[in-house]
Write a structure and sequence with these properties.
mainly alpha, de novo design (two linked rop proteins), two-stranded antiparallel sheet, elongated
Amino acid sequence: MGNEIYKENYINVMTTNEKLRWASIVVAIIGIIDATYLSYVKIAHQEVYCGGSGACDTVNNSPYAEISGIPIAYMGLGAYIIILALLLLESRAEFWTNYSPMIVFGMTLAGTLYSIYLTYVELAVLHAVCPYCVLSAIAISVLFILSLMRLFTSQ
């Protein structure tokens, strides 16, 4: 009898964890689409479509949009791709099942903290807000919250 309750609870936890994983996959794809657009704009030397406000180009062309000459959009795209890969690999092998959630948590924590800094820069230094940057900040923050929830539901 006690073993049946354990199995039922285990299945419920796995179901919740799996739902959170799929939600994370969807959010990571949104982040990839957003970062791909911003990366394309950088590569093609195009203006960011921002509804005529110009705020996007102010942010995207500022010194804060690069680290050591590498556009933040490229770094964001790389991070979202790695996060998506980790989420997808998680169901493939025991190693990834054990370590992917913690790696994703660490990456999204770092991304969220950096996004907080960049949002501060947008508001306090540049006095311009890029909706694509805000979308990326929201995506990485949601991924962080989902990864935190997954760590607690897996125990």
